[in-house]
């Protein structure tokens, strides 16, 4: 299951079957998402720089996969609750960034936030 719409529908069904809709509001889902991102950060905070190139062991990769899945599921649920088409918005944002940061002039250069 890689389709975002299918994942959204499954999350909605999962929530409704458990009568959890009342717990899935903007604030609660945002805080839950933030907590899960924190768990990802906790796994990588003391890794050496070589880990940035993917030099991690199988156990850490498995744990990261589990936490990243939590992040994705909360993000998908949050987008559904607030009525945002996450796929469309991500596509639009990527197009904006492609225009904002063309390859010429930005290759290998961190974006200037000023």
TrEMBL record:
GO MF: nucleoside triphosphate diphosphatase activity
PANTHER family attached to this UniProt entry: DCTP PYROPHOSPHATASE 1, PTHR14552
Entry superkingdom: Bacteria
GO biological process: nucleoside triphosphate catabolic process
Keywords: Hydrolase
Protein name: NTP pyrophosphatase (Non-canonical NTP hydrolase)
Pfam family, one: MazG
The NTP pyrophosphohydrolase MazG-like domain, residue ranges: 27-87
